[in-house]
Design a protein that fits this description.
This protein is mainly alpha-helical. About 75% of the residues lie in helices and about 0% in strands. It has ten helices and no strands. The protein has helices at about 1-10, 20-30, 35-45, 50-60, 60-75, 75-90, 95-105, 110-120, 125-135, 135-145. Helix 6 (about 75-90) crosses helix 8. The longest helix has 15 residues, at about 35-45. The termini are far apart.
């Protein structure tokens, strides 16, 4: 099925003049994370180019952003969420909504992998980053959800 979907995406995009967005929508919305990762690998093996590059070339705007987000999350969710958390805490001010949403929704799913990826990529624990970027009850709540520092 991954091979067929990879072929369908190629036919809907790079192989033709214009883009058949309906095919991209169907495949990206109906396939699981594991299936999308397999499709991405099959696409690369079959055409020597990444599906990510095809999406960038064939789409634009918020549609492109949505497809790329799904693809990044499918290929490596821990890396994707670590990057989003870093962006939420980087620079002046903190995007509390994003920070809270990701920590609350990922805590029981894959937070241990996100924490490990955050440490590997940014050389600082996620707990330490959250501690330095938040305060009060919000800090206490988020650190409780994150669990022990690793």
């Amino acid at each position: 099925m991954a091979l067929k979907d990879a072929k369908d995406l190629y036919k809907a995009g790079e192989k033709r003049w214009g883009t058949d967005e309906k095919t991209f929508i169907r495949i990206f919305s109906e396939r699981s994370r594991a299936q999308l990762a397999a499709i991405s690998a099959a696409y690369h093996d079959m055409y020597g180019s990444s599906l990510k590059k095809a999406v960038k070339h064939e789409t634009s705007g918020k549609f492109e952003h949505g497809l790329l987000t799904i693809l990044k999350c499918a290929e490596n969710p821990a890396q994707y969420f670590a990057k989003v958390l870093r962006k939420a805490m980087k620079g002046l001010g903190t995007d509390d909504t994003t920070l809270i949403r990701i920590i609350v929704t990922r805590t029981e799913i894959d937070m241990q992998y996100i924490k490990a990826e955050y440490l590997r990529k940014y050389k600082k624990t996620l707990n330490d980053a959250v501690h330095s970027e938040t305060s009060g009850h919000c800090r206490t709540f988020l650190l409780a959800l994150l669990g022990p520092n690793c």
